[in-house]
Amino acid sequence: MYSLQELISMSERELSLISYPPRPAGLYEPIRYALAEGGKRIRPALVMMACNLFTETVTVAKPAALAVELFHNFTLLHDDIMDNADTRRGKPSVHKKWGANTAILSGDALLICAYKQLARSEERVLPKLVEVFNETALGVCEGQQYDMDFETRNDVTVDEYLKMIELKTAAGALKLGAICGGGDEIETDLLYKYGINVGLAFQLQDDLLDTYADPEVFGKPIGGDILEGKKTYLLTNAMNRADDPTRLRLQQLIEDKTMDPAEKIAQVRAIYDSLGIRELTEQAIKSYFDKAYLVLDAMEVAPERLKPLRTLTEGLQGRRK
To answer: What is the greatest pairwise CA distance in the chain?
Structure first.
C-alpha cells in the first residue's frame, strides 16, 4: 500500500516527465508555467489511491491520474479569467502574465493534453474511463455555471448551493481510480459517494474558515468571501434563517462597496453569530464526514487497505487552513 504522500510525490514526478513541444512557445510556455506553480496534487493521488484499494499495480491508473490533474489546471486557467483573479498559488495568473487570449488558448490545449493522457489507459478500461471522465468534466462546467449564476441572485437556496459544490468536487477521481484497479460497480459507486461527502465537507470547511479562522494559522486575511459577496453555505443559510429586517440588513451589507472592509466583515459575522450560523456549519461538516466514514465502513475491502483513505479523512477533518 502507498501512503498519500508517496502518491503525491509520484504524481508530481509523472507530471514533470510530460513533454510539451517547444513551439509555439506562446501556447506551451504558459502550460509549463501553470503546472510548475505547485499545487497539492491531491486529485491525481486520489485516483491512484482508489486504484490501490484493489491492486498493488497503481501504474495502471497513472494515465487517468495525469488526465485529472491536467483537466483541473485547465479549469484554473479559465476560472481565473472569469473571476478576474490576478494571482494563482502566489504567482501572477496566466491571464495576468500573458493576457486572456493566451490563457484561453493554452487552457484549451491543456484540456486536449488531458484527453491525450487518458487515451494512454489500458484498452480494457478505457471506454468506461472516458464515460466517467466526461461526466465529471461536464459536471464541473455545470457547477461553474451555477456559481456564476449565483453571483447575480439573492435567492440562492442551501440545496442549490450544495448541488453546485457537489458538481465541482473531485469525486470522479476516485471512481476513475477504482475502475483502473478492477473494483466492481458497487465498490466504485461507494467510493464516489465517499468522495462526494468528503468534497462537501471540505468546501463547507473552506466557507467556515474564510470567516472564522485564526488569521495567523489560516495564512491569509479572513473575510474575503464576505467582501466579494460570494454565495457560501454561511450566507445562504443566514438568508434563509433571518427575519425580514435582518435579511435586508445583511443584503445591504453584502452589496455595500464603500464600507470599511474590517467593519463590514465584523457586522456580517455578528449577524451570523446571532443566527447560529457557525454552529450550523460545524454540524453540517461533521455530518458529511460521518457519512464518508459510514461509506468506508460499508466497503468490502480489507481494513488495512482503507487506512490511507481514513488517514486522509482524519487529516481533512482537523484542518485549520
So the answer is: 61
